[in-house]
Fold:
Amino acid sequence: MTALIIILALAALAIIWIVTDKSRTAKKRQQVASIPFPHEWRMILRKNLPFFYKIPADLQLQLKDKMQIFLAEKQFVGREGQQITDEVRVTIAAQACLLLLNRNTDFYPFLKTVIVYPAAFITRHNNYQAGGIQSNEPRVLLGESWNRGQVILSWRDSASGGADFEDGHNLVIHEFAHQLDGESGVTNGAPPLNKDQSYSQWSAVLSAEFNTLQSQARNGQESFLDKYGATNPAEFFAVSSEVFFERPKEFKHLHPNLFNQLKEYYKVDPAEW
Ligand SMILES: [Zn+2]
Structure:
């Protein structure tokens, strides 16, 4: 009996701790977002991120608030001589926070550090391939996203992705879409959906579109979505997210069901920007 009372008391304390911790975080975020957006950062948006001035004014304000919170919470680390300047931080944050607009978000809760290389970098991990083959051949990458708290980016490609927001390729959006995907515990193309979304619809639409892209890739046919998306469902979600923001009008016209699922998920409609 005493043991039960102690367990119940500890559980109650844990709940109180979690609730007060959440409200402390919310209050802190409110304070950070209320600080005026630095003039220098606005100049960086103007110079490096032309898309910023195309999105509606209310979303511009929201994006700036989210960037301030993101930049207050995430650590940036440079590798191979890459300096971490405000230009690097702001340029990456603006693209990463686009994925958080209008959403009930906890700001990439698993992410602690953004690691930035000057350009493409080499990694050597165990790669599991079809048939269970394992290799640790070095690979040249532009970016990577890890569930254990890191996103790794090439600065050159993060900057060029922000500068050209119409080619359908965006490294930062791609890697941060993987982060959102991983919030479910596994990175598999099924991120935790919003309350008003249906998992069965999401799965039906994305599976059908993924299968189509796979067969287009196998048969060497033309496709609107980059063939890299045919690698697996996680890459399919990341590649689809890139074109959702960068080529929304064509996307909506060519893949209306997939576009609608992403529109419900991201809670914005870039086709109207
Ligand atoms: Zn990827």
Observations:
- The first helix runs from residue 2 to 34.
- The chain has a mean pLDDT of 92.
- The radius of gyration is 20 Å.
